[in-house]
Amino acid sequence: MMKKKMMLLALTLLLSLPIFAQNIFTAIQENDAPGVKFLLSRGGVNINAKDAEGNTPIINAVKNEQPRIVKLILQMNDVDVDFQDKQGNTALILACKNGNAESVCYLLCHFPKIDAKNKMGTTALITAVNNGNKEIVNTLLLHGARPDITDKQHKTAIDYAQGLNNTEIATLLNNTSAASANETK
Predict the structure, then answer these.
(1) Which segment, 19-23, 29-33, 40-44, is predicted with the most confidence on average?
(2) Using CA atoms, how far apart are residues 120 and 149, in angstroms rounded to an integer?
């Protein structure tokens, strides 16, 4: 009788804690920050592993717009913040695409290649400009993003800002370009 109760208790406990059956990708997909934290703290998680679509945990967390999980993953020493998905997007480019300033800031603290390009030649800065996100554009510029880099359409971030008639961002980019030009003289 006692053995039955112990087995029933063990089974109940096991079913109430689905976290133990999860992998890092499932936990991210379910926005299970405590699950991610548990899996990372327990060790043995390859933080740069790829899922069936070829994405790493950091890419998935950014794509799913989960800044809390992004922060947890970035606490791991060996995370590759410059990994590129199938379209060549880095986590930083994706965070800019989503307009997630919190994730952008977390990523910038880990010194990514700020001017990395995806397969279209688009940088994080160009992405932020195309989304009209002045806060992220300013943050990227303060961290050294170059507004003069061209994409495969031979357009710069300034060209996109002007094409979108976003005078605030265009002015910000032009002022940064002018300041950079003066520093190199």
Answers:
(1) 29-33
(2) 13
What pLDDT is recorded for position 178? 62
Residue 41: CB atoms within 10 A of its CB come to: 10
Question: What count of other Cβ atoms lies within 10 Å of the Cβ of residue 57?
Answer: 30
End-to-end CA gap in the chain? 86
* Digit-coded pLDDT (tens) for 39-90: 999 988 999 999 989 899 999 999 999 999 999 999 998 999 999 999 999 9
Tokens 């700020």 belong to 114
Using CA atoms, how far residue 143 sits from 18, 71, 109, 115, in Å, is: 41, 19, 10, 10
pTM across the whole model: 0.84
| Residue 96 tokens, joined | 């800019």
* 33-42 vs 67-74: helix crossing angle, rounded to 10: 10
Give the per-residue pLDDT at 19: 40
Identify residue 26 by its one-letter amino acid code.
T
Alpha helices for the chain (secondary structure H)? 2-16, 24-29, 33-42, 57-63, 67-74, 91-98, 101-108, 124-130, 134-142, 157-163, 167-184
Contacts of 16 (CB under 8 A, 6+ apart): none
Residue entry with tokens 């913040």:
81
